Amino acid sequence: MNLATEQRIALISVHGDPAIEIGKEEAGGQNVYVRHVGEALAELGWQVDMFTRKVSVEQEDIVWHSPNCRTIRLKAGDVDFVPRDNIFGHLPEFVENFLKFQEDNGIIYSLIHTNYWLSSWVGMQLRQKQGSCIVHTYHSLGAVKYNTVKTVPLIASTRLGVEKQILETAQRIVATSPQEEEHMRTLVSTKGSIDVIPCGTDIQRFGRVDRKTARNELGINPQTKLVMYVGRFDRRKGIETLVRAVGQSKLLGSENFKLIICGGSRAGHSDGEERDRIEKIVAELGMTQMTEFPGRVSQKDLPSYYAAADVCVVPSHYEPFGLVAIEAMASYTPVVASDVGGLQFTVVSEETGLLAAPQNVSDFADAIDRILVDAQWREQLGQAARKRVENKFSWEGVAMQLSELYKNLLHKSVEQPMVANS
Question: How far apart are CA 75 and CA 79, in angstroms?
Answer without folding.
Answer: 7
